[in-house]
Amino acid sequence: MSKTQRTREICALAPIVPVLVVDDAARARPLAEALVAGGLPALEVTLRTPAALDAIRAMADVPGGVVGAGTLVTPDDVRAAKEAGAQFGVSPGATDALIAACEAEGLPLLPGAATASEAMALLEKGYDMLKFFPAEASGGTPALKAIGAPLPQITFCPTGGVSPSNALDYLSLSNVACAGGSWVAPKQMVQTGDWAGIETLAREAASLVD
After folding, report:
1. Mean pLDDT of 14-22
2. Is 131 designated active site?
3. Cβ atoms of 122 and 113 closer than 8 Å
């Protein structure tokens, strides 16, 4: 079995994976419920705030949701994410230690790559579903299309600079399964508890590819 079979299944759930920075764990569950209701079930909670692990715990039992941990950098991150209930992990890049920790914990990983060499190194390890990061800074759709020509067996989830204005450009590429985006959960809407507004943004993102 490909090491990324489960990751591929998660990436196939919706065209956009919300990339979430959660400052207040009390808002995590209603945020997840709004995104899932809008048609975005795969949720990436970045480990960039003190509330992140508690947010993952709160989201883990939301019906229909699949919560993952983003910004995995160290084996300790992997173990903490798994213990909190994360069902998949996302990393900005990849190291042998990080990959080994994910495999030891049984945590499906979406590892990051920005170059052909990085993508080939991960492919060699059995990973053919990768995060293209940082997408826009690494050349955007032209770069991803160019990498895809000699490496058609690799599928990507571009993240970093993806927005409503360019998401379709990425999603139209044959080697893109989904894209990561933070615009579906604007900080102001989360802080004010505008869950209906977030559900509307999620529904719009979910309908980018019919």
Report:
1. 98
2. yes
3. yes
